[in-house]
Fold these 3 entries.
Entry 1:
Amino acid sequence: MTRPSTSMTQAWLCVALLWFVACLNYLDRIMLTTMRSSITEAIPMSDAQFGLLTSVFLWVYGALSPFAGFLADRFGRSRVIVGSLFAWSAITWLTGHAKTFDQLLFARALMGISEACYIPAGMALIMDYHRGPTRSLANGIHVSGVFVGSGLGGLGGWLAERHEWGYAFKLFGIVGVIYSVLLIFILRDLSGEMSAAKGPMAGAKPGFISAIKSLFSSGSFFIALIYWGLLGLAGWGVNGWMPTYFKEQFNLSQGAAGFSATGYLQAAALVGVIVGGILTDRWSRSGERRRITITLIAILLAAPGILLAANTGLITVAVVGLMLYGLMRSLADVNMMPILCLVSDSRYRATGYGILNMFACFVGGITIYAGGALRDAQVDVSRIFQLSAAGLIVAAVLLFFVKPNPSGNTDEPVISSLKHTEIAS
């Protein structure tokens, strides 16, 4: 009989293990936005201050993302992943014990530091294992963990209604610490003979300045930076303020608003990352440029979904709009790292993703804080959603100008070239 080679098994095991890490990563950061009423009752604050809790997380998270990505390129993906998960989970548990606004703000800043290390390292490790015909699907499965975590963010508001606001932070913090200990024994980097870096520089340790120079030597990387920042504006505008908008627009409870604004959206996104990953891998067999084309089309279809959700008095219509947005927007998340692989040196892809993350988080943090400031000024927060939709359209236009750079992409197929080993039964 036959069975997959050890390397193929490890490649998909890597995706499975990181799926749970990605889920916890976004659950821990998003659930605060779904328990606004419970938090502000326990710790009085203005809407701008409540928005600042997420903004400060994003700004710290974004500022450290390039350095966090460089750590993964320099010292190994799996080490950085495990350390990041343990640290942010401990801080999540600590957040649940905050008694004042300053303590809560400080805890959110600490979470930004610890979570910054995960996404660049996790994405890069999956790209190390999966190349060619499995790249978008593997990344899509991993990103589905992000959407499940975001969708489960509504648990924060639900648990806060039944216990107290800090209960969810304490619970999921403990879960993350336990899982990080398990990963120490089973998560591994790709073996040296099949690593991403090839050629005479394969044994050299990357330097941070060299990485920055290499990445920005490509005009397409600079375009990708602006593009990802605009997607951050749209994504965090929706994630940060849609639960509050639903609660007030449709007179829902805190828990129902949280699930309605995140659950349906993330369910649609979950379908999108899997289906989108499969379609992209198949369509790109005729040329890697097609990964860019299919993403561009999807983003243009996502923009009307936001406008529909934010300009109706019917919750059913709003949910349909959010699901359209989630389904189409998810293809951008599936293909961002594969697109980055097309325009950058494989040795620096974690650093590159960290830089993209940094800019997207800065823009997203400003968006969320602006939403709180608008509410304090009695301005309709739906303006944020209109800006988010416009940002998606501009992002699609920019993506058209991103060109693959074959000389910078040193990958060689791994999974597609693996053979099945014949085993005597």
Entry 2:
Amino acid sequence: MKWSRYSRLFQSERNGWLLYSSASRAFLRISGEQVETLQQIMNDPEGYDYSQAPLLYMQLRSLGILVEDGKDEELYNIIKMRHLTALYADQSLTLTIAVTSSCNFDCSYCFEANHQGHIMSEETEDRVMRFIKSFQSPILHITWYGGEPMLALERMRSINRRLKDMGKRFDASMITNGYLLTQDKVKYLNELNISYLQITLDGKKETHDARRYLAGGAGTYDRIVSNIDAVMKSDFRGTLHIRVNVDGRNDEEFAYVYQMMQQKYPQDFGRRITVYPGFVRGEGHPDSGCFFDPVGQGEFLSRMMEKYQIAPLYLYPQRPSSGCVLTKRNAFVTGPDGELYKCWDDVGNEERIVGSVDCRNDWNMGLIAEGMTGCSFLDDAKCRECFYFPVCNGGCHRVRQNNLHSDKIQSTCTYFKGNIERLLELHYEMKNRQKAKEPNRDKS
């Protein structure tokens, strides 16, 4: 019998002693009289006489705080099995379609160099459709991407019509800067079967316009806010997600955007519209010192909660997702010429092309394998022994892949690392406030 490496007992200055398990995700407050007993068990789980506290022993076992020898290693294998099963499943095809490499913006932090690209041709559309048809997967997930996909609205509509004619069951997302999504274009969102729409707003008008401006330098804030309003007043059936790219220069303005949307759309906020932070990576940027590492991300989330009572991302660790395009077997990004990539960040980078929609044989399998398995956190010894392993998916795998070829190693750790006790404390207090607001129930 041993104290699981995924269990942590800690003292909160405001809330007393708290116990958390990243394996079972159990979280509870410990009474003062139990603390000494728990500390004794934690320090010597084999030698403690559990006959003195049989009920506590049963609770610790059921919650995964105390485990038999080898159980932590067994859990690692179970998590790895589940993760790989999801990554290699072929029930669905996930395809990001960059219908154009052109963009009407010239954002200061953009990683795509070519804003004067072109729109996917009809001939390339035919090739993409054949590529989709070659997969037997019954479910299709489409993400419209660019450049700016709204520059190629008619190409999206054409592909969408052909997918419906093909009889494919599919859902769609769109990543757009929002500038061209005017009132007369909003009607196409439902036609395109879009369930997830992302638009970026980087703070107050002055800040946003200094970061996200048109190719000629003009500001974009007023037009985007107006277009967001058009979406929310329409019959759009999906959800609108406002992304705020946050770094050390505009972090306090996240709360401004969050509260503005909350006040403008009180009935729909958290349901039809959400606001969340996007943490922009700073490699190669002259102001890279302003960008947050994972610890800084956690500190930002703590500050939002303590100062504004805003929880834009989870304060409590969730079970990890099943991976990204880079790590999934049936997931690809196609550029406007039909070239294939394994990450959104790679679009337009010839060195990162892994194949073409025309041929499924002559692919760069070495590059694909490196992204899927060569940099996997599942085979990382440090990750395997990490307290956060059950609630972490290894972070950005594109960064992990970059780390294989760089002397400047970037952290891919979860934002909970270095902040777990503070975030759990805030989560505990938030839940208590929510309970206090619940109407009293008849206890008879």
Entry 3:
Amino acid sequence: MTYFKYYKMKRKLLPGILFIITTGSIHAQNKSVSSADFARPDLVRRFEIHIPQTRLDSVMKRVRTATFPRQMPSRDGASDWETGMDIKWLKGLQSYWLNSYDWRKQEKLLNSYPQYIADVDGYEIQFYYIKGEGKNPLPLVLTHGWPGSTLEFFKVIDPLTQPSKYGGNRDDAFTLIIPALPGFGFSSMPAKPVNANTVAKLWNKLVTEIIGYKQYVAQGGDWGAGVTVRLGYFFPDNVKAIHLNFFPGITVPDSAQTEAERKYFASINSWRIGGYDYWRIQADKPMMAAVALHDSPLGTAGWIAEKFWAWSDNYGNLDSVISKDRLLTNIMLYIINPGGIDGSFWYYRGALSELNASTWPGYVNVPTSISKYPADMPVAHPPSETPRRGYNVVRFKEMPRGGHFAAMEQPELFAQDIREAFRPYRN
């Protein structure tokens, strides 16, 4: 029998969120996790998400009363998404949100795996911790990016932790650690903008000192790729190998570029003219977007959904690869979380203040696997020689389909790719 204790968080970092502390197993087919599974149980507490109804009512009232601008005509008869938003599509999302979407059902989904809050060097880090089957599941840290969330990985949790139930071998099982970046989900806001250098140190401490795995592997896309790269760079004694489904980029002098690299960097520069404006706003003028979006759920939905449309392998139909339920739940995690969507902008600002806008920390010696998904943005499509300049690339794979949100879009391909990439590092 599972016992529940309810209490309101007193911390200023997490206002208006009701957490449920539990003991026992949450997800029936996964091993339960107890305090004995942590090296520092004093720094970890179990929780579930329960958003007060008054908070939900406030969000839905603003969704209901939102008004729309006129649709600007696209250039040359292109899709209305070319202007930044297809208003007809957004009106359809609003209708679904009001009439069909069920947050409580999605909240139950979010709570269907064991999740915790850990005190890591003064940061409150939310993370999922799901133990794999078999005698020796390999610890794997999965790190999300923007505008994704820990929800990105939900379709691959069971295949990765329970491969024997999906036609695989139980010896390929992983134990998953899926943290939310600071300012995202229910991780606390940082005191100042941070980025991958800080987060990699937090993640390594969470895994090695608080949970207690001395060696592990790591995977990430988008900002999660930046964190994963730095895990390999800073902690080669702990991180056995890394996998990226997004290439964070590296600078190659013009005189040293191959012909394939010249075409690659030209495509990035061309894309940045119209595709990088969100990044500049969120990093250079984050409070402009923060003021516009913080109190506008529908505006937040449009801001996030446009990137899901632009970066996913959807052939002009976003609903065909990411359902409205999944999309809205991901969006809601930016609306009802303690930091709001503007909390995620701190991470972009941190790229300037902490990384000086550099995506590469130095040569990464740990074995690195890179998978290129065809619909991702141009920076994610380097010729093989480019990443080899800065990484110990042991596997470089062209995926047949999928985009920026690989685990959401193509969970079967993603899970199989992860199994294959990390199989050599299980001993």
